[in-house]
Design goal:
- By secondary structure, this protein is an alpha/beta fold.
- The protein has helices at about 10-20, 35-45, 50-55, 120-135, 160-170, 230-245, 255-265, 270-275, 280-290, 295, 335-345, 370-380, 435-450; strands spanning about 55-60, 65-70, 80-85, 110-115, 145-150, 180-185, 185-190, 195-205, 210-220, 220-225, 300-310, 315, 320-330, 350-360, 385-395, 410, 430-435.
- It is about 30% helix and about 25% strand.
- The strands form 5 sheets. It has a 6-stranded mixed beta sheet, sandwiched between helices.
- A hairpin with a 3-residue loop joins strand 1 and strand 2.
- Belongs to the peptidase M20A family.
- Pfam families: M20_dimer, Peptidase_M20.
- This is M20/M25/M40 family metallo-hydrolase.
């Protein structure tokens, strides 16, 4: 990638400040401190004066923002960038496990520390820093550019989703996007001896769906001194075991087939030939991928039993026992089919099944587009054997809600992170590498320019 002239000192200072503003979202909006989002908006306006004086700025919902940079050619469809302002809370009891306090924004010269450093205030600021820098250079876009900032992305499938409100408003106005970029895959060097030696950029062209189901099993209540053979909790445990032992079928969707085919085409070994045509050995590959929890998530709807409750006291037989199961839906599975799957497994129990909340799996975006090729070209410049590959994002993003205004939705963050950082979002010691400021901002500057070409 070609690197731009970027004010890295300004960005580092601003990311530290952004992290210090604890924009935590909660399932119950009454628990959210909305003054923090107002503080964050005021900070953005102060930190990026050219952006907020040049672009049209509109507030949507409780704390959403639409930034609109008007282009010179109305015949061109606009491009869009998504980011969320909210972060997840710190797990109680882990505050002292952090090397630096979680909302300190501490800069030790190598990392900037704190909740939201990776997920996703660094990404958000890279977008706005890129626009600010282009404005300072005197750049004027041909296409309209939109930046849409949500405020409760971390509440997956929430009933009052900010991104859904923003997308609906844009749809009502008849705006159709050429392409939209959101958070997702990253960029990495892969050095697998005799297999692949390349710089690979992972671009999510689809994401899995989401569902939380509550299962409640009834049983005989009463005193624990004369229990039945199986209490309600025991029956529930039996049903949970049955559900876990009957996972969803493993199968290949088009994003995963495309990923294998793309990677295989850049490999020189016989394995590359096999991966280049994954359809031939789909059943063998699917079976192999089921053996690892990470790869299994790409080829099947996942089942995760996460919560349970039963009796209010140790010496009381529960009259009912409940659990919550989280599913991540593969394309082709639906909320209705997951419900049917559970009902079939629970038919021999006195059980009720309730969908708490959920959303369907996303559509699959095409890869033969200017936007996808532009991402590829940016990372290929100046590097040998660098390429982009589509893949399936197993997590959830805001982009799902924008299908009503765009078919070309790409989930990608322009950072190359060491493996030890990939598990820190939502966890302890989340931190952003300072050496990723330059490539991060450079990417968005180049993407805006190239999409005008």
């Amino acid at each position: 990638m070609k690197l731009e002239h970027v004010n890295e000192e300004r960005f580092a200072k601003n990311l530290s400040r952004a992290i210090q503003i604890a924009t935590i979202s909660h399932e119950d909006e009454a628990d959210t401190d909305w003054t923090k989002f107002k503080e964050f908006h005021d900070f953005l306006k102060e930190a990026y004066p050219k952006t907020f004086s040049t672009l049209d700025v509109e507030e949507v919902g409780r704390a959403g923002l639409i930034l609109h940079w008007k282009g010179s050619d109305a015949s061109l469809d606009p491009i869009g960038f998504l980011a969320h302002q909210d972060v997840v809370p710190i797990a109680p009891g882990t505050e002292n496990d952090w090397t630096n306090p979680p909302f300190s924004g501490a800069n030790d010269g190598t990392f900037i520390w704190g909740r939201g450093a990776l997920d996703m205030k660094s990404h958000l600021l890279c977008i706005i820093e890129a626009i600010e820098t282009l404005l300072e250079e005197g750049y004027a876009p041909k296409r309209d550019v939109y930046v849409c900032l949500d405020y409760n992305e971390e509440i997956v499938a929430g009933k009052d989703n900010g991104a859904k409100k923003i997308a609906a408003l844009l749809h009502e106005r008849g705006i159709h996007f050429d392409s939209i970029l959101d958070e997702g895959g990253g960029s990495m060097d892969v050095h697998a001896k005799k297999l692949l030696d390349a710089h690979v950029t992972m671009v999510g062209v689809a994401e899995k769906g989401y569902a939380d189901y509550e299962i409640t099993v009834k049983g005989q209540g009463g005193h624990s001194s004369f229990p039945p053979k199986h209490t309600a909790l025991g029956l529930l445990a039996e049903l949970i075991t049955k559900i876990e032992n009957h996972p969803f079928e493993a199968r290949f969707t088009s994003p995963v087939l495309s990923m294998f085919s793309t990677i295989g085409s850049h490999m020189t070994s016989p394995i590359g030939t096999i991966l280049k045509h994954p359809g031939i050995l789909k059943s063998i590959l699917a079976k192999a991928m089921k053996g690892n929890s990470f790869t299994a998530s790409m080829v099947q709807t996942s089942t995760a039993v996460t919560m349970a409750s039963a009796s209010p006291a140790p010496n009381v037989l529960p009259e009912s026992a409940s659990c919550v199961i989280n599913f991540r839906l593969l394309q082709g599975d639906t909320l209705a089919s997951v419900q049917a799957h559970l009902e079939n497994l629970a038919k021999d129990y006195d059980a009720s099944i309730r969908l708490i909340k959920g959303k369907e799996a996303s559509a699959v975006s095409p890869i033969d587009t200017q936007a996808f090729h532009t991402i590829d070209a940016i990372f290929a410049e100046g590097q040998e054997n660098a390429f982009c590959t589509p893949y399936l994002l197993t997590a959830c993003t805001d982009s799902y809600h924008y299908e009503c205004v765009c078919e070309n939705l790409y989930r990608f963050s322009p950072f190359s992170l060491p493996s030890e950082l990939t598990h820190t979002p939502h966890s302890t010691n989340e931190r952003f590498p300072i050496d990723q400021i330059l490539p991060g901002v450079s990417f968005f500057m180049q993407y805006i320019r190239r999409m005008d070409a």
